[in-house]
Amino acid sequence: MDDVTAVLDREFPARRVAETTPARRGNTKETTLVRFADGGGVVVQFSADAEAFRTELALARAVRERTAVPTPRVLADGSLGGRPYAVVELVDGADLHERFSRVSSATRRRLSRGFGRSLAALHESFVFEDYGAVRVEDGRTGGEGDEDAGAALRADGTESWPSWFDAHARAGVDALPTAFDGVRDELLAALDDADVSGSPTPRLYPWDLRPGNAVFDGGDVAAVLDWGGPLSAAAGLAAAKVEHLVADWYVADGAPLRVAFREGYRSVRPYPEVPSVYRLAAVVRSAVDSHGVVTRPRYPELEGKKAVAFHRERMCEWLSAASPSDG
Description:
It comes from Halogeometricum salsisoli. The protein has 327 residues and is α+β, with helices and mostly antiparallel strands. The chain has 2 domains: 3-89, Phosphorylase Kinase, domain 1 (2-Layer Sandwich); 94-321, Aminoglycoside 3'-phosphotransferase, Chain: A, domain 2 (Alpha-Beta Complex), CATH 3.90.1200. The chain is built from 10 helices and 12 strands. The longest helix is centred in the middle third of the chain and has 21 residues, at 105-125.
């Protein structure tokens, strides 16, 4: 008996499985889509990182409880053979990563406004005491036993905002492969010159809120799927990255999507201050994945030198805009 079958027998002993389809999602999870013979389905996920997975599930539950951001329900979680697993509601629809560049321009603008509203709702609902990685508090589960799953989430940083941001941005530069050596010194110089003084309110920075992690029902986003790797940071830094992943990632002219994204955000709360150095850091931290592999924008996806060129162009755009007086 394989592990997916074992989980299904444990959690749904009375239901017969009609079909299972592996669908790897992310670098640390094994994902299988399951259809039942009597209709409906679930997603079974196994993770290689128990602590990170516990945080991701707690945040997913809290987002569903606190906001209207469409988030699949976590139906069950546990451990099998030492591997943590979760069973999550299966939401029908298409992968928005494949559709976003192909839908009409009006639909793209509407979807972009929706992403803006979603980020603003998260900023309204999740405020922390510190900056840094968000984790489930020791001794808490962030699961069904907690009245509010979000109450178990804490940011583990103790540094000031300028110190945390500088370390965060420089870690991104350090992770860039040699293909970016031609721009590395300029990036570091921009960070040296940056003025990010102050103590902005630490708010949720969802690491991967983007079309590529959404289900599209033909008209709107039906589900946001990935809540892994959350941070607590200035709202402007989160806005810079999500706006980049929505407005710049898929189409050549992102200006209309940028406007729509900000309109959506402002329909919930005022748009935060976003210095150019925040946008620069957002591009840098989006250019490679957790294994240091260059990420692939657009769809069909750019690869190799074309992907590097995309990221370098965005970096140069914000290098030219960043200045000591900009922050």
